[in-house]
Amino acid sequence: MKHDSHARDAFRAQPQDHGPAPKTRRFDPARRLAVLTLSPGLPGAALAAMLQALDGAVLRVFGAGTVMNDPAILAALRDAVATGKRLRAVSQCEAGGLAPGPMRPGRRCGPRASKTAARKHPRRR
User: Fold this and answer.
1) DSSP-assigned letters across all residues of 16-34
2) From CA 1, how far away is CA 10, in angstroms rounded?
3) Is the pLDDT of residue 2 over 70?
């Protein structure tokens, strides 16, 4: 996993659970699943097309669990869920947690966000 974007030794190994292999298959191999990385500049129509072709997806979202505050991206996600697609969000950060929502640059996310930060960056409706 990449740990530091500027360090000479930027990568490090993550501990893995080496438990026993499952005795039975946990999912239908005919299911169409993918890992999709959401990044700025991804067109909403491209995300919608990918999700339409899938039964479910793991979405690699920004650090605190946010996605671009783009109406087309949000609509693609909303439509996928409405049609029964199974979506899971995972952070691209090594540590922390998820507080899903639209990205608002400069705003602290998650349970540690201060009341001052919330007043500086009120929710847009």
Assistant:
1) ----PPPSS--S-TTS-EE
2) 8
3) no
Q: Would strands 33-37 and 56-61 be described as parallel, antiparallel, or unpaired? A: parallel
Q: What does residue 44 show for φ and ψ, rounded to 5 degrees? A: -60, -35
Q: How far apart are CA 62 and CA 59, in angstroms?
A: 10
What's the pLDDT at 80? 97
**Residues 6+ away with beta carbon under 8 Å from 10:** 2, 3, 4
- The mean pLDDT value for 54-81 works out to 88
Among 44, 57, 53, which Cα is nearest to 102's? 44
pLDDT in tens, 75-106: 999 999 999 999 998 877 766 666 666 555 55
b/e 69-85 (16+ beta carbons within 10 angstroms → b) = ebeebeebbeebeeeee
